[in-house]
Design a protein that fits this description.
With about 90 residues, the chain is an all-alpha fold. The chain contains one helix and no strands. It has one domain.
């Protein structure tokens, strides 16, 4: 078999002639499968990027919240520490 003829059907009992419409149908099917695979890969990559963006946004929100409430949280912990040290 020559190069690119791996997917051709075996010769029919019609004198060794190959049916080119079957070959093109097989190639079309292979191309269709390949295109579906590429689309699926792109969608998976897109999902990963979306999850990464969500994680980054959550991290930014946590940093902003801790920065805004940092002094209040520190005073609560200082109050707890003072009360615990006075009871012991």
């Amino acid at each position: 078999m020559g190069k690119g003829q791996e997917y051709m059907l075996s010769p029919e009992p019609t004198g060794g002639r190959r049916h080119h419409w079957k070959e093109s149908e097989e190639r079309r099917e292979m191309l269709n499968l390949w295109l579906r695979w590429q689309l699926l890969r792109e969608q998976k990559g897109q999902g990963l990027v979306e999850y990464a963006l969500i994680i980054v946004l959550v991290a930014i929100a946590v940093v902003v919240a801790i920065t805004a409430l940092g002094t209040q949280i520190a005073s609560v912990f200082n109050s707890i520490t003072t009360k615990l040290s006075n009871t012991g």
